Each structure stands twice: as C-alpha cells, then as structure tokens.
Protein 1
Amino acid sequence: MEELEFESGLDNEKKVIITLFWTNRKAARTEGCAPFRIKKIETLNETYTPQGTKLLKISDEIMADMVQTLNAGKTIPMEFNIGEENLNVSLSADSLSVTAQKSPEIEEEIIEKLEMELTKKFPNLCDSFTPRITPQS
C-alpha cells in the first residue's frame, strides 16, 4: 500500500474526479484498454455497487454523497477493477492510499502522479473521461 498526504485548493468533487482519472490511467499502463470498472464506493450514507450486469456510474447523487463525506472529514473507500488488476483506493480531503493486487508498482505511479496533480490549480484531466464514468442522459 502506498499513501499520500496533500494540501490542495481543489474542491472535493474535483479531487474525486482526478483520483478516478489517474487511478484508471496508471492502471491502464499494465492492463491496456480493459474497461475500468467501479466495483464499490462507500460513503457516510450509502455503499454503492453495480446493479446486476450494469456498470456503476458516478451519478449526481453519488457525487454529492461523496463530496458530503469528504466535507465531513471522512474517508471514502473505493474498489476498482481494470483487466486483471484490482485496486483499493481510500480518499479523504487531504490524503489518499492505494493498493494494487497484481502490480504493486502501479501504486507508486498513482501516488506520484496524484502528488503532482492534486496540488495544481488546473490539474491535467482528459475531457473524455468524465462522460465515461457518469450516466449519459
């Protein structure tokens, strides 16, 4: 497990998106174009998991719940899958930890990248990522 403590001027919603994006991006380095699956997100109010064969998407309600959890000073444990890799990420308003089951070197790469991105005023983010993890109307 790799951990990071940070100071960031970003709002908590942006921290969530940046964390999801760079976790996906760095894991894709070893897993290629395999789908990024959100397996579980735990907030103060709810545990979110995919329903049946549907992918879990970050709806406005889930994002609001995640932001509320971070605003309350609590941590959000999340589980992701990409290819053969399973990742556990815990995000709070000022810290992050990541564990990769298959390729532990990914942990360090994610932490190094987020250490840079979370402290930027305008973090690097691919415009096509957010529509892939949020429901389409």
Protein 2
Amino acid sequence: MRIGILGTGAMAAALGGAWVRAGHQVLVGGRDAAAAARSAAGAGAAGHGSLAEAARYGEAVLVAVPADIAPALAAELAPALAGRTVLDCTVPMAPGAGGPALTTTGGTDSVAARMAAAAPDARIAKVFGICHESIWTLPGPAFEGAPLAVPFCTDSPLAAELVAELITSMGRAPLACGGLDRAALLEAAAVFAVGIWWSGAEARHAFPAPALAPGATDDEP
C-alpha cells in the first residue's frame, strides 16, 4: 500500500517506520523540507516532499499534525485528499487544572468530524490515536497473549476495509467502533489514558474483562 504522511513529528516517524517494516511504501510530507527529510530517513520511507505531494501519494494519507490545525490543513488539501482514506491520529488535548483536558466540546464534536466537514470528498477514519507513539516502534506487540487491538471509527465501508487491512498488516487486530459520530469517544479516551499515564498509573488496570457470575455463561447478555 502507498501511504502519504502529513507531518514530521514523533507520531509520523513511528507510524511511518511501522508501515515500512510491514512492507508498505511511505512518503513523508511537511512544510519544512529538512524536517520532512529527517523524518523520512528515520522511518526508512521511500521519500519526502511537500504536504500536497504526500496528500496525493497513495490510497491512504495519515494526518499527524497538531489537532488544532488538522481541520484547516484538511480544507487546504481537500482537492488532493478527495477519494482517499484519511487517517486522523490527532488527539485534541491541552493542559488543564486537573490534568490533560479535551479541547473539543465532546458529544459528536471531534477533530475527525471537523476534518470530514473540511474535506467532504475524502474518507475520514479516526485511528492510531489511543497509543503513545513508542508503541508503534515495537515489532508486533502482544499484551497478555493477544495482539494489540487498534480501535477506529469511520462512516465509509471502503475506509473501514482499508484501515482493517493496514492494521492487520502491522500484526495488530482491527477493532471497529462505529461511525464518525463516535470518534469523539476515542479522542476523549486518549486524553483520559494520557492523564492516567502522567499520574504514573496504568490505564489498562481500570478496564479488566468482566467476570462471569456463578452459573452464568458466555451466551447470556
């Protein structure tokens, strides 16, 4: 698969490297040519170029820029993004009095929904934002005997198929979570998890699998 990356930061390099290791072709795009070249070299990408060149490069386009500028960038590149699956990994987060805070309003408002409005002919998928970038540098991580589950939201069946194929190629398990009206839940979950990590705790400890009551079976609701 050919994947263009918009952005030159840590997430761009980590995901780009994971995709290169999975056998995909990656082109990193940025406004700063030197930064794009460094990020591409670190990921082992096929090359680097401008944001517009990365947007036009392949079937999928990763948006790995700060959340507050992602919708405007989608609007700027809307003609190039038309007909492509756009992977939104942004997390709308800012420091708050009690820890990291969500910068969207919640509900159905999300960066992904704003990007969909800005680039209506693109197929937007909210994905890859839950995990810290360091997780994507691991070779096919498994936790407690199971491959890493990667949740995603999209309104497009074509995007869902491509995202599932991409996640599977990385040795992870795709986890469909509904349409873009649920993307805000993924963004809020990411902010919640970051707050837990910053406190020195483990987010996974808050979500154990439900235990069956005595006499209950897996078939019961």
